[in-house]
Amino acid sequence: MLTTILIGFLLAVLLPWLYKFFKANTGRFLAVFPAAAFVWFATKHNQIAAGGIVKEAYNWMPGLGVSLDFKLDGLSLLFAFLISGIGAIVLLYAGTYMKAYEKTDRFFVALMIFMASMLGLVLSDNIISLFVFWELTSFSSYFLIGFSHEKEESRGAALKALLITAGGGLALLAGLILLGIGGETNTISELLMRGDQIADSGFLHVAMMLIIVGCFTKSAQFPFHFWLPAAMAAPTPVSAYLHSATMVKAGIYLLARMSPLFNGTGNWNTTLLVVGGITMLMGASTAVIQSDLKKILAYTTVSALGLLTMLLGIGTEIAIQAAVVFILAHALYKGALFLLAGIIDHQTGTRNIRKLGKLFKKMPYTGTAVIIASLSMAGIPPLFGFISKELIYASTIDMVINSPLTTSAFFIAGVLITAAAGILSYKVFFGKRNKLESQPTEAPFSLVAGPLLMAVIAVTLGISSRFISPLLNQASLAVMPENIELQLSLWHGINTELIMSMATIFIGYLTFLFIYLNPKFIASIKVSDKIKTSSVYDRTISTVVEISKRVTIIIQNGNLRIYVFVLIAVFSLLSLWVLKDFSVPSISILWSDFRIYDIVIGLIMIAACFYAVMAKSRLLAIALLGVVGYGVAFIFIMFGAPDLAITQILIETITVVIFVLVLWKLPKFLIFTESFIKFRYFMISIVFGGLMTWIVMIVTQYPLESHLKAYFAENSYLLAKGKNVVNVILVDFRSLDTLGEMVVLGIAAIGIYALVKFNKTGKKEEL
Amino acid sequence: MEDILPFLIGCLYAGGIYLIFHRSFVKLIIGLIILGYASNLFLFTISRITRDAPPLIPDDATQLTETFADPLPQALILTAIVIGFGLQAFAIVLIKVGFKTLKTDDLDKTTSTDRLDN
Amino acid sequence: MNSTILSMGIKLLVPLFVIFSLFLLFRGHNAPGGGFVGGLVFSIAFSLYTLNYGVKRTKEKYKIRPLKLIAWGLLMAVLSGLIPLFAGESFLTGLWHDEITIPVLGKPGTPILFDIGVYLLVAGTILSLIFTLWEE
Question: Where are the domains of chain A?
Fold first, then answer.
């Protein structure tokens, strides 16, 4: 499993070269990866369906309990199938669809990173690696939403999605870490079995709420839902893949994964039920009044995510099964519908349903696929969506309390979704009017093939659902270990669920007719900004920007002297506050230790420093600077630091070279005559210098106990096989620090290069 | 020397800071370099100094046993010298580019580059 | 600087400096020296050459590309950290070949690779600085 994920990341890294080689065929080539992954997962299907589990474990940071543990069970396999299967279809589709865009190599890089991290997310069995993959999906989603970065709308939408999901990600991280502390393990499968221990630690409820926040932001639950419709600024393949079939379900996945731990405790069920319910109804009712095809789909997706949350909140056996089945059904029809909406946009040039109509004769294949997918969305037999809808009704009718309320919520949402399905299929393909300027033609096969295939799968699974039953059964067992066996079938006899389903379809049809026949009335409905949560977000963002602007104007006034002064003043006051408790150290010169050249060196350096400060000529100042530098090197030699001395001398030499190269081109010293101000700064400097002297004297009065000194002396040769202890520390004991410092140096060099080379001409020469 | 070092460090700090307070670019650079010396010596001194005993393990031994200078601050200062140099070089170039762009040597007149205009 | 003696002297000094810098680099684990010091000596040799002959000639004669030196330096250091991963140790753990002892260097192991990385990086950083400033 690690190999699969790593190949995905590797492809992303190699993509610039692959793109040069494959050019327009890149999408088709890349599709081989998810297709191969799909086949690999398929080989594990029988084992998992029989109740087996595939595990892999690799050490990452064992000292911190972070490892790359992977576990493939029913739930993971279901998601892995969706990610790799739909991934292959989307890549094939994107290969053709993205031809209209420029710089598609970047698009594929982000998409591959997403695909690999999404697989990592659903396969991870360690909370930290899960979190890393989780954040990687947010991060790649940011780049994909903002792909058309020259558009203000895209940038805003990308930032919105990133702030919301990454903000939720922080809450999630806190929650996961609390779980890890409470359960004393970072392995998810073990955490799930340590519910009592976590409850005893007192972290269970806090962790639960934090994880819920993280999942809600990711899965676009109310009040965080607004990023999802905005994210429709992304190219359509992204909307189909990330924002309907996979990424937005990551929150649902994690909620489901954590269900065995939280289901039945505290506010878990109520929170999920209420928030999911609000999201579902809000999404469904907003969907039917939209005019943009993708917005309709986005809001129905929000609604579907709300429904899933609600089902997990109900938390009964049937509800969990319904959730698992609905995840599959929804991914199939919604992914297909998004891709088809992209085709319609691609062929007609618009996504506005008021302009679309009578398309079926011109685009028969697209039309067929849309109709099948919409029928599945409306839950009409014999499609897979129908089976899923039956189960959903079964789960609400089965509820002990609040059954009528929940059932009616599902009913209303179902009616509205059915109406939305009618708009998508009938209005667009058989609607009477068509305000298009050009005559659209059928899309190329490479675009239609994927969604048609998904539609066919929706039919196949509907008719012969027993093929998929074992896997879905295992998936629901992963969410609820002591669940009853899941058995799907199209026909359960005439019961309440069937009647409810039929009523939904009928009333949904009436609703559709009403919307279809009164387009003006629907267009006149405006949602007031006051009740939109997105306006809260907009206000918050603009306030934050405004505040930081004001603060910046105050503290960053552009005057270097004031910066330095503030720094020194604050530092001095703080140190004085600490130092006031110490007495002034006595100066006692040990005549036994007195060496005349010490004094001479010291005095020479002090004098050189003084004259360097006072010098009127640049050359003199630089020469005196050299005297101070060599003096420092001499001190290093005297006190047992030969490495430092050599380094210092070499640096002095290079500094001279630099001065030769640079400083003579700079102007002469300016003489400023504000002697009062000069005196003031002189006094500040004297005070600061005195303070530093004082600090050194006080510190050196006390003995220093250094365990590290002894450790390095003892182990330098025995452990690290080096006799120069300083070098051993640099390249072995503390080599990670040195690596960081190397990076700093490299950045400084590149910064200098950029400063000089890109300053005026823009012409660059190879260095 | 141990008695003189604190005063030397104090002088270097005072001189460096005083130069940074000046309005001239070149003095700012010299000030930064002196400040670098001061900080390295400061680190060196407060981690206690030992005369004539470099932390080198003799050929015939496998451990350091007698008095020896603390190697850890030395390792820190060694990288600090090099990195300090890198950053000083960056500052020099930045100031030089600033000088060419703004055509002034007076730091008080270059406030516009670091201020939010609003 | 048009002194013939200086020009000739620098020409002769460059190879000596380079050899000396390598010596400093390899003895660094057991005696004063190491990657930082070696890299500085290396870059001083070419800095002097550049001061006398200019960047163009230095680049032509010695084929030095400072930014590439930086990249190689970082790569070497990271590689020396990655090698232990294959031996099941964590990142940047030192590994040695215990049986051999090489004169000057001592026991060969991954830390010397790291030190070579430091050497290349320091040399590259300083040379890129000198070259950039010269061309200005």
Answer: 1-262, 274-525, 553-705
